[in-house]
């Protein structure tokens, strides 16, 4: 039915994203990200924070050792990303929602393939009207163009160049997007089965019985019990509410 689970990482119109980074020998840029530090995305006018409910599809992995045949670039070492475009303005961080896949955009982020799946919550009152990427263009005019604009410029305030896209920034349709998800799921299965080297990725799990990383429920409980209590959230820095105005030369 082309329906997948999405874990919401960043609710729409918010700026904070938790970066859990490890040293990645294939990507020196990621080595200087402090583990567990909140990163705030700038407000690039006219956008406020993330313009969709943003998250990821579990059990997918964009393998940094695999060169994508469509983009010519390797994966970004993350699960595949999802932009949920439904009418519910803000989902909750950590919420798991079922989404219908509509299409995808191939972002080239600092030389890596970073697929962005466009999807809609299956429980959205308008979900029945959306079946492919053309429906988004027809029913939400300007949204896809704003999505390209957002991904192109969101790192410019950090002093980085504009991002690039495969396919000249054109969105691919639902069938193409589903194939991309299936491909990244196969990479995840190889990772969790130790058939490929995941570097410092922790593959410990409870549910994949054939995985050499599978642990017992007792072991998992002991890990949770030993974890320190959560600290109170730090106040949001005032610069997060500033606007960045960008004019291309």
Automatic annotation (TrEMBL):
Segment forming the signal sequence: none
Family classification: Belongs to the PPase family.
Claim: Lyase is one of the keywords in the record: no
One CC-aspect GO term: cytoplasm
Class of the enzyme per the UniProt entry, highest EC level: hydrolase
Listed cofactors: Mg(2+)
Gene that encodes the chain: Ppa1
SUPFAM superfamilies named in the record: Inorganic pyrophosphatase
InterPro entries per UniProt: Pyrophosphatase (IPR008162), Pyrophosphatase_sf (IPR036649)
EC number: 3.6.1.1
Oligomer and partners: Homodimer.
Membrane-spanning ranges: none
Keywords, in A-Z order: Acetylation, Hydrolase, Magnesium, Metal-binding
Full protein name: inorganic diphosphatase
Pfam families, A to Z: Pyrophosphatase (PF00719)
An individual GO BP term: phosphate-containing compound metabolic process
Superkingdom as given in the UniProt entry: Eukaryota
A GO term for molecular function: inorganic diphosphate phosphatase activity
């Amino acid at each position: 039915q082309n329906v997948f689970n999405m874990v919401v990482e960043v609710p729409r119109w918010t700026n904070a994203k938790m970066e859990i980074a490890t040293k990645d020998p294939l990507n020196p840029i990621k080595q200087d990200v402090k583990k567990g530090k909140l990163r705030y995305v700038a407000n690039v006018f006219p956008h406020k924070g993330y313009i969709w409910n943003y998250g990821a599809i579990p059990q997918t992995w964009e393998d940094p050792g695999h060169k994508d045949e469509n983009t010519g670039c390797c994966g970004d070492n993350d699960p595949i990303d999802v932009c949920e475009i439904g009418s519910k303005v803000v989902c909750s961080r950590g919420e798991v929602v079922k989404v219908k896949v509509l299409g995808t955009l191939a972002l080239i982020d600092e030389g890596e393939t970073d697929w962005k799946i466009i999807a809609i919550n299956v429980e959205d009152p308008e979900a029945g009207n959306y079946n492919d990427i053309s429906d988004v263009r027809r029913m939400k005019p300007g949204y896809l163009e704003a999505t390209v604009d957002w991904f192109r410029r969101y790192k410019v305030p950090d002093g980085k160049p504009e991002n690039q896209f495969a396919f000249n920034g054109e969105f691919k349709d639902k069938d193409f997007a589903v194939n991309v998800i299936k491909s990244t799921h196969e990479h995840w299965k190889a990772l969790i089965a130790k058939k490929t080297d995941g570097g410092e990725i922790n593959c410990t799990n409870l549910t994949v019985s054939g995985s050499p990383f599978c642990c017992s429920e007792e072991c998992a409980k002991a890990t949770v019990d030993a974890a320190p209590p959560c600290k109170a959230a730090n106040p949001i820095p005032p610069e997060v509410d500033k606007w960045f105005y960008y004019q291309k030369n």
